[in-house]
Q: What sequence folds into this?
């Protein structure tokens, strides 16, 4: 109880832990934002105390006794009223200036920041590291104590990147770029949420920001950028389910349950046999064969990834975006191999049972 | 005017004519006000049911009983119904229609037929909302942000009917505002000068100005959105070179002033409640009157603070932040003046006053937390979080709706001619106060700690469950308070004690006509005096109400002397 009480009045130091009002501080700007927050909050406590005290005292002291009471009191007092107009005005000007200065610090990324390209798409985040040619989905790895600048755009509707522990937020808009920057001050994992409503799975549009030591960063990125290139086809399914499936997760389940798109469980069997009906009335098996739409079943999957609107499965809305330009050929192969070996990668409840390197998960 | 003045004393606006048609085609402002009141309260029930669905869904991180799509519809319908069908028309159209002409000393509003038409437009608006629910539902949020709202593949099929509904409701609101402006300008009787008007009328007047000037903008915006969604003209659609952020500017250019359409009339109600129920002359009449007008004016200049994270330029953010702070000053002035009114008063802790006092406390929290959101550095973190949800519920619900409830209780004896059960009223008011604060204070805490709004689930953030449980528990207390309120109010209509003309000792003109008022309000022209001077009244045991003192100087006598 006492700790709650003291944290109410916390003044913050860099990297302070969570308190009554705010989460832990994990970026360089957090301290100054929190300082502004508590300056305002203290002003709030003061005025709320004065107002509440006056209310309670008046309620008790001037409570009506009997019915027929004539009360006399002042009807106005111009100097007093001018005073309580001007004083709050001065106070809010101070708050404005403090807030504006803090905001300008949030705006300007330092020279030489590490750049990450962010794409929001219903309902997942993709992070590309141009320097290393590496792509991450639903997780963002950055070095500690290094300014990082996110250059962001959306492929569909509005989204918004919010990392509460860093105190940063910026909307992600189709047809233009927006940016934000942060410098993480502690190694660890932090939540990144979508803060702008974007439809059905808005609340699942989640990513983890993984802050790692500077000396490990380059190694990690190079490994990430090239890990699948050196893999044999046999190693690809484990890679795909760990590194690529989180992009599909919000619409496609692994346990056979219904969602926005068809479940991946048993998908390869249905595709191979051609037992899939489209809203156009066509059946997949009629499209297979030489000099037809899909020579082999694998080509149907490839087309579903790159041009998903060409054939929409009956019973679904066709909400799938195109992954044209986002997946390398070998990654498409990896996804197809993942479908073929899904039983070896998951258990009956749809939990993933292998690590990216193929070892069984604990 | 025919000579209605010599009729029998039991004749009033409720029994003057009979039958359903005499209501549906009535031009009487009091009946139209009552019809609005009934409809708004039914819409409040509808919006409230969706609110409870939201609260129960969020009891567990995985969500308890709704799918993502169902939840998204629930919060959209809750928001749209509460804003467009409940809070905007609540005080002006329901209470204002009933009270405004009587307070003014007029027989009706300036355009009675237009007044009835406004009510029918409200009904049409409701019908379109119901069509939207039937035609595939609506899941865009009440804000209809583009490009989600124009993307047929993602958002649901009810978008266009809902937009038409909001468009029609806009006209309902414009007509009411126009009517009130003209009424206040043209129908004030002799002696009713601007500065003799009760402050409720100043607040309603300021509101009416916003309704007339801001609402057309949302009308045009919604039409553009309908055309964009159905034909595709490329104004908001980025795929066609349009600008989705432009929509936000258009939308908030109306919807921020609309916040003051919601709160100003409630502030007007509270000015009446605080003065009448403490029998104390309102403190600083002119400051309160001018603060209403300045809130209405500043309200037009601050819309950009809804867009601090939208990617608009830093310079614009700074300018909008600065202007936003200016709105806090007239609001603070009102609170200080209300407190000064209570000082040395004779405070009756009856139901309307409990709502009035609740309003001051809750509005103070709602207003003060606005400082965190107007400040750029802190808003970046708090934007689109539950902190914002809590803030606007403190203002929209804890203030606007509680002011409305206070007004209902204050004028209930006048409207129905019956007294409600006072002690049940107090119990209900206290439950509403406690329930409200538990529900929404916990939302401030989870918001500043990182809980985003409009989330159907929070699987990755289970640490927020405890706050959601508190919030839901509070909402149950709140709901119980409302149910009790509904029961005793309904009971009073059928079995309540007969109300005296002036149960509280009010001085404004509505307390000079019988309860309920006769068909044409005043048998003879009432005497206009200082509407906050209570020294001329005394308690009459026989009537169980207040009456003129025997030795009081009537305002008319003053003029003769």
A:
């Amino acid at each position: 109880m006492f700790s709650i009480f003291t944290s109410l009045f916390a003044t913050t130091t860099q990297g302070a832990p969570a308190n009554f009002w705010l989460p832990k501080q994990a970026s360089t700007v957090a301290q100054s934002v929190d300082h502004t927050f508590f300056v305002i909050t203290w002003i709030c406590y003061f005025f709320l105390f004065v107002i509440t005290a006056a209310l309670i005292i008046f309620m008790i002291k001037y409570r009506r006794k009997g019915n027929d009471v004539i009360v006399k009191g002042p009807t106005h007092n111009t100097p007093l009223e001018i005073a309580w107009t001007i004083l709050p005005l001065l106070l809010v000007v101070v708050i404005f200036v403090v807030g504006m200065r803090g905001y300008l610090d949030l705006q300007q990324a330092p020279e030489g920041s590490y750049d990450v390209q962010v794409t929001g798409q219903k309902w997942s985040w993709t992070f590309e590291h141009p320097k290393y040619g590496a792509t991450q989905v639903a997780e963002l790895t950055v070095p500690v104590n290094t300014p990082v600048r996110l250059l962001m755009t959306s492929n569909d509707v509005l989204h918004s990147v919010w990392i509460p522990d860093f105190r940063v937020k910026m909307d992600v808009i189709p047809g233009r770029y927006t940016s934000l920057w942060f410098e993480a001050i502690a190694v660890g994992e932090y939540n990144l949420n979508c803060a702008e409503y974007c439809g059905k799975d808005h609340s699942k549009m989640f990513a983890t920001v993984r802050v790692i030591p500077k000396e490990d960063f380059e190694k990690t990125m190079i490994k990430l950028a090239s890990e699948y290139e050196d893999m044999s086809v046999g190693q690809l399914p484990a890679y795909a389910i760990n590194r690529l499936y989180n992009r599909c997760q919000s619409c496609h389940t692994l346990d056979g349950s219904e969602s926005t798109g068809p479940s991946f469980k048993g998908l390869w069997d249905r595709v191979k046999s051609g037992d899939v009906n489209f809203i156009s009335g066509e059946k997949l098996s009629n499209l297979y064969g030489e000099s037809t739409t899909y020579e082999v079943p694998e080509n149907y999957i490839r087309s579903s990834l790159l041009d998903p609107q060409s054939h929409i499965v009956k019973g679904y809305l066709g909400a799938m975006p195109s992954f044209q330009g986002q997946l390398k050929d070998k990654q498409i192969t990896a996804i197809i191999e993942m479908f073929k070996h899904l039983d070896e990668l998951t258990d009956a409840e749809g939990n993933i049972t292998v690590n990216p390197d193929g070892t069984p998960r604990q | 005017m025919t000579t209605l003045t010599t009729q029998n004393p039991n004749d009033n606006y409720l029994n003057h004519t009979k039958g359903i048609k005499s209501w549906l085609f009535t031009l009487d402002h009091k009946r139209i006000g009552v019809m609005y009141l009934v409809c708004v309260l039914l819409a409040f029930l509808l919006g409230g049911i969706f609110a409870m669905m939201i609260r129960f869904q969020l009891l567990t991180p995985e969500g308890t009983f709704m799918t993502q799509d169902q939840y998204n519809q629930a919060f959209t319908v809750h928001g749209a119904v509460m804003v467009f069908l409940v809070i905007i028309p609540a005080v002006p159209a329901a209470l204002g229609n009933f009270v405004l002409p009587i307070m003014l000393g007029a027989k009706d509003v300036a355009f009675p037929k237009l007044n009835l038409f406004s009510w029918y437009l409200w009904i049409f608006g409701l019908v379109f909302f119901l069509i939207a629910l039937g035609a595939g539902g609506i899941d865009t949020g009440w804000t209809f942000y583009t490009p989600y709202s124009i993307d047929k593949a993602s958002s649901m099929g009810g978008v266009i009917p809902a937009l038409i509904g909001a468009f029609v409701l806009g006209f309902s609101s414009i007509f009411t505002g126009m009517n009130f402006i003209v009424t206040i300008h043209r129908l004030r009787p002799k002696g009713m000068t601007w500065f003799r008007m009760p402050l409720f009328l100043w607040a309603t007047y300021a509101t009416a100005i916003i309704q007339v000037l801001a609402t057309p903008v949302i009308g045009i915006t919604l039409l553009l959105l309908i055309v964009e969604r159905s034909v595709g003209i490329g104004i908001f659609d980025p795929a066609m070179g349009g600008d989705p952020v432009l929509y936000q500017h258009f939308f908030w250019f109306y919807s921020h002033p609309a916040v003051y359409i919601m709160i100003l009339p409630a502030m007007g109600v509270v000015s009446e409640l605080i003065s009448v129920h403490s029998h104390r002359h309102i403190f600083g009449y002119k400051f309160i009157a001018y603060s209403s007008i300045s809130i209405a004016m500043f309200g037009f200049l601050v819309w950009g603070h809804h867009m601090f994270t939208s990617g608009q330029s830093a310079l614009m953010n700074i300018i909008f932040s600065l202007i936003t702070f200016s709105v806090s000053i007239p609001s603070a002035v009102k609170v200080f003046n209300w407190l000064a009114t209570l000082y040395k008063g004779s405070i009756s802790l009856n139901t309307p006053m409990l709502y009035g006092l609740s309003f001051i406390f809750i509005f103070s929290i709602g207003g003060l937390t606005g400082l965190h959101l107007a400040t750029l550095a802190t808003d970046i973190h708090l934007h689109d979080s539950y902190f914002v949800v809590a803030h606007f519920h403190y203002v929209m619900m804890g203030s606007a709706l509680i002011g409305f409830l206070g007004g209902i209780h204050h004028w209930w004896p006048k409207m129905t001619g019956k007294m409600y059960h006072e002690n049940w009223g107090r119990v209900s008011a206290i439950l509403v106060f406690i329930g409200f604060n538990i529900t929404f204070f916990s939302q401030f805490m989870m918001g500043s700690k990182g809980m985003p709004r409009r989330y159907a689930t929070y699987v990755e953030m289970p640490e927020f469950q405890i706050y959601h449980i508190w919030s839901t528990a509070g909402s149950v207390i709140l709901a119980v308070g409302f149910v009790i309120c509904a029961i005793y109010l309904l009971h009073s209509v059928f079995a309540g004690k007969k109300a005296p003309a002036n149960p509280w000792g009010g001085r404004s003109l509505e307390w000079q006509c019988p309860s309920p008022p006769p068909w044409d309000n005043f048998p003879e022209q009432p005497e206009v005096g200082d509407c906050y001077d209570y020294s001329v009244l005394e308690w009459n045991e026989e009537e169980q109400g207040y009456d003129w003192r025997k030795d009081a100087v009537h305002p008319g006598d003053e003029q003769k002397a």
